[in-house]
């Protein structure tokens, strides 16, 4: 008698999205780009723009700063 083969279930690795939602227009068109001396966040739909000095943060942290600045009324 032989044993039944077990099915191997691989865990799904989730990744962060590269194109994010704009807080002003709601479109999924925001790109976070790292340039030589700064981070630039730009919405491709409405043109909302945010720049911050280059730091060791990840792009998702820069996006969260962008959303916080928009909600605080610093950009808009």
Question: Can you offer a commentary on this structure?
Answer:
The protein has 76 residues and is an alpha+beta fold. It has a single domain (19-72), classed as N-terminal domain of TfIIb (Single Sheet), CATH 2.20.25. The chain is 18% helix and 28% strand.
Q: What is the count of distinct domains?
A: 1
CATH topology: N-terminal domain of TfIIb
| Mean pLDDT over the full residue set | 93
Task: Sketch the major β-sheet.
Answer: 4 strands, antiparallel
Helix share bin: 10-25%
Topology as a string of helices (H) and strands (E): EEEEH
- In terms of quaternary structure, the protein is single chain
CATH domain class: Mainly Beta
Give the neighbour order of strands across the main sheet.
1-2-3-4
Beta strands, count: 4
- Report Rg: 19 Å
Uncertain segments are none
**CATH architecture descriptor:** Single Sheet
Gross geometry = elongated
Measured between the Cα atoms of the first and last residue, the distance is 72 Å
What is the overall number of helices?
A: 1
Report the sheet-strand fraction.
25-35%
Structural class: alpha+beta
Describe, in short, the structure shown.
This protein has 76 residues and is α+β, with helices and mostly antiparallel strands. 18% of the residues lie in helices and 28% in strands.
Blueprint (SSEs and pairs):
Layout: E1 19-21, E2 28-34, E3 38-43, E4 49-53, H1 59-72
Antiparallel strand pairs: 1-2, 2-3, 3-4
Q: What are the main properties of this structure?
A:
single chain; 76 residues; alpha+beta; N-terminal domain of TfIIb; four-stranded antiparallel beta sheet
